[in-house]
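Whether sequence alone determines local backbone shape is best considered at the level of individual chains. The sequence in question and its structure tokens are set out directly beneath this paragraph.

===
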Amino acid sequence: MSQRIVVDPITRIEGHLRIEAEMDETGKTIQSAYSSGTMVRGIEIILQGRDPRDAWAFTQRICGVCTLVHGIASVRAVENALNYTLPPNAQLIRNLMIASQFVHDHVMHFYHLHALDWVDIVSALKANPKETSELAQSLSHYPKSSPGYFSDMQIKLKKFVESGQLGIFSQGYWGHPAYKLPPEVNLMAFAHYLEALAWQREAAKLHTIFGGKNPHPNFLVGGVPCPIDLDSDSAINAKKLAQVQEIITLMRDFVEQVYVPDTLAIAGFYKDWASKGEGLGNFMTYGDFSEKGMDDLSSLLIPRGVILNRDLSTIHELDLNAPDQIQEYVSHAWYNYSGGKDQGLHPYEGETELNYTGPTPPYSQLEVDKAYSWLKSPRWKGPDGTIHAVEVGPLARILMLYATEHEQTRALVDYTLKELDVPIEALFSTLGRTAARTLETQIIADTMPVWYDNLIANIKAGDTKTFNEQLWEPASWPLQTKGVGYTEAPRGALAHWIVIENEKIANYQAVVPSTWNAGPRDAQGQMGAYEAALQGHTLHDAKQPLEILRTIHSFDPCIACAVHLHDTDGKEMSQVKVC
């Protein structure tokens, strides 16, 4: 049995992920990597036999971080199966809610899940608050950038350290030689870490206005559950619409004045990571953000398609309904297929038969020649019949927008590459993946006012409809039908496939971004995106594998989405205590 570095669990993510890195003969460079989701998901089983209109409420509980995206994919799947059309206001409100999720999620990921891979918190104690203030003011016009402000933040950090309990900053690899930021940049990032915690409370309010609560706002097949009545205290009125506008402004200001400048400032010290951590070189997007309905692919802000081998000149068409294009494999996953583990199944025909065959926990190593993960392995078959592993997520979307000559994307990417003095190939890297998430946030935040203004224009013109009652009664449904609901979740392409028979769910399959990215090898031995991205990484200290965390966190893993389990009554299945 080969000796491997084992990181289990990968922290600062949603869910439980194990990475095993097999080193070369020097013990310094990763030769092969293996990604294992160590929880099991059973949502598809739970949904069988239920009313399709209730599915969104179950699927949203797949994850507590991704919150609304599974609800969106679910209602869209039912609407696609039953040929519902949405009122324009409902489409606009959904766009605003999804966009709010993007901006909120990406900011939280950068500061609270990923920035600590680059920012040495303890080093901030050595910073000069006056010089930190000068640095912050040179980067943006954010109001909180005085020497006194950064001095107060440094005192707060000092109290953490002197108490001997770093709290939320405990268990970091502080002092690791791979950290390169000057103390002043570290102090600025620490201050903005705390600012982002306060900011998110306000950003989350948009979901509560349109969806009643956050996380897991309410949805409705055929529209949105919030009526518009400017004269009502309980419906969406002028006061609530004004509050939405204020929230959008708040979000945009933080992205423009804090998130984007911080990304550029930090990236400038880590340009060596512009050539590390790519992996597959293949990228996929389902597309999202339409004002004309999800069947109108030409109206999507984020286009649909596949990019192969870094070739931005060719966008390959993607059909979510084609039985041979998207398939899931389980040859190295703890599932059974009735036709054998080496076959691939399109989600309409998907099966969820749990079959754990791994070693008895706790174990020292995965049995990687067999099944070693609760994640399946989604793959896409190209026009020439070749089966491809692909990466999904912000990098895929930015590449797709850049390739289709989206004006703002081109300008932002070209400016960023020039500022960092790196070639366009830097996009295909750990650093590029992180920067893409930031640029995408800017693009989406800047588009939110457009959707808001269009919603206001509709209301002023007398259109307040937010729900389509067509086909609401199951007696009007076809006896058998199927559909797919897709969205671009913050972590990447997400789709739910549903088969409805006799008014009930006969089959339901959710293929989530972290399944595409974190899945294990397939029957042909092709690696998933995480596994491919880690190959070739050189570690400074195998006992502090910061380099592994940097690349894995750049994907923003959500393993709870990929593998998750409740019983049908929502009861706890097991309890794990971590000492």
In short: Residues 85-276 form a domain with the Cytochrome-c3 Hydrogenase; chain B fold (CATH 1.10.645.10). The longest strand covers residues 480-489.
